[in-house]
Amino acid sequence: AQSVTQLDSQVPVFEEAPVELRCNYSSSVSVYLFWYVQYPNQGLQLLLKYLSGSTLVKGINGFEAEFNKSQTSFHLRKPSVHISDTAEYFCAVSDQGGGFKTIFGAGTRLFVKA
Amino acid sequence: DGGITQSPKYLFRKEGQNVTLSCEQNLNHDAMYWYRQDPGQGLRLIYYSQIVNDFQKGDIAEGYSVSREKKESFPLTVTSAQKNPTAFYLCASRPRSLGNTIYFGEGSWLTVV
Asked: Is B27 on the interface with A (CB under 8 A)?
């Protein structure tokens, strides 16, 4: 069975500072990895995804994530955050075998302070 | 525009009443999902469907029911058997392709009083 652990429930950071949101997963098979963002009272939007190839994945809004197979991690980073990045961020995993289940982490609330 | 439409956005119901949340997609996606979101608990899978007339229980299916009579539609009924139904409900869909990206609707708030 797959699982996703987001190591921080809340991350406060000052505007223009760098941020890293941590995600670890467990799976017995090869996986696809995703980061989604959710603004208040809205659905989730895809930020980026890792399917194969380069382990550094770039997404929208200046975010990027690095897949580390040996550490089973997929941490999300941004070099300089803005107030508008305040939101909840979810890491997710699904297996590459074509299964239709996607498992989400509990989420990390990013709070950007002025 | 293509997308996933959930309705209603906000719904209030009395305890003991069944309520149905609508989800329609015009993306021609094969798979559809219902997730429940509670503060601090992330998303929990209620039901999912890979094809018309077929669906599977997720992790928290008790007290819920679904149908998939059309590819575009996947309504969720929250029954009186669901002990704590107040939550934010998210419908999603996914194409049958490698990469497995899920697309979400805007969500429905259900409050049971």
From this structure: no
- pLDDT tens digit string along A81-96? 999 999 999 999 987 7
pLDDT digits (tens, 9 = 90+) for B19-43: 999 999 999 999 999 999 997 778 9
At a CB cut-off of 8 Å and minimum separation 6, what does B65 contact? B76, B77, B79
Tokens of B46: 């209620």
Window 53-92 of A, Cβ < 8 Å to B: 90, 92
The residue type found at A109 is R
List, as one string, the DSSP characters of B34-90: EEEE-TTS-EEEEEEEEETTEEEE-TT-TTEEE--SBTTB--EEE-TT-S---EEEE
Sort out which chain B residues have CB atoms less than 8 A from A43's CB and list them: 4, 90, 92, 104-107
Distance of alpha carbon B89 from alpha carbon B80, whole angstroms: 16
- Phi then psi for residue B7, to 5 deg, are -150, 150
Cis before B8? omega within 30? yes
Amino acid making up residue A59 = G
> Measured in whole angstroms, how far is the alpha carbon of residue A66 from the centre of its chain?
10
Amino acid B37 reads Q
Which tokens in the block code for residue B26?
């015009």
Strand-pairing partners, residue A54, are none
Residue B38 CA: distances (Å) to CA of A36, A107, B90: 17, 11, 11
- The DSSP code for B16 is T
